[in-house]
Amino acid sequence: MVIEVARGLQERGVKVAVVTRGYKGTRECQGGVVSNGDRLAMTALESGDEAAMLADTLPGVPIVVGKDRCKAGMRAHRRFGCDAIILDDGFQHLRLARDLDIVLIDGRNEFGNGRVVPAGPLRERLGVLRDAGCIVVTKSESTDVVDRIEETIRREGVSAPLYHSIYRVISILDVVAGERQEPNVLRGMDCCAFTGIADPSYFFQMVERLGALVHETLRFPDHYSYGSTAVEVIRRRGAEIHGYVTTAKDYVKLRDIWPKDLPLYVVEIRHQVKEHEELFKRIYCVVDRARRHPPGVT
After folding, report:
1. What's the pTM value of the predicted model, to 2 decimals?
2. DSSP code of 105?
3. By residue range, what is the domain housing residue 38?
4. Could you report the per-residue pLDDT of 109-145, keeping only the tens digit for each?
């Protein structure tokens, strides 16, 4: 979603930067500039996988990391003079004032048991959604689930506009060939699919929907840091098949250690909001208002 918002604002002539925590990167606490929009200044090990993926995917957009998002935001503003800053995963980061909160809700998992951690999956009670500027239900293929989500949040008194999104595969990166292919390149391919993301089952289903014949699946912990041992495990599990399939988030940690002769295919996706124009009209109005009435910066 961060990528889509950044691209949408770029297309409208807004100078934008992204601030993210840099989770599990070695520079997470120290912070710093991952990319100035043209050149990488950190490795994936230093920046964390999500920041590295953002830098790969968003040419022209500075990416700044730091556990202290206030400090990182000011660094982005002072160094790059941007019109807008997108704060990744910042709804609970109350020290940093926001002009618009876009909250994502998983359209497959809903709200779990409705309890907050550690008793359930929620970070806060549902009532905080009343502070959201807008809500996007992701993975919204199931209309029944989406209807239940909407009923639940409206019962909480949430009046924010509700949008819906799906993940769409746009290309497959053939790492050995060094070129991008159409998504149908996986059709009929015997493969091993592996990933270290929060919802691996959705990724595996996505690969199968492309027509791939998935004989083996490997699930690593979210934000998993790959090494030579993990690569060897993947190689052994995928023996006697045509290739290996993973995500862009995993690939940024694998590209320097993956064997050059081992077929690897990276699924590249877009976060497609069904009400794209309506959502971006709302986002751009907020940005435009803030540009015309900027706050004092200290």
Report:
1. 0.91
2. E
3. 1-90
4. 888 888 899 998 888 899 999 999 999 999 998 778 8
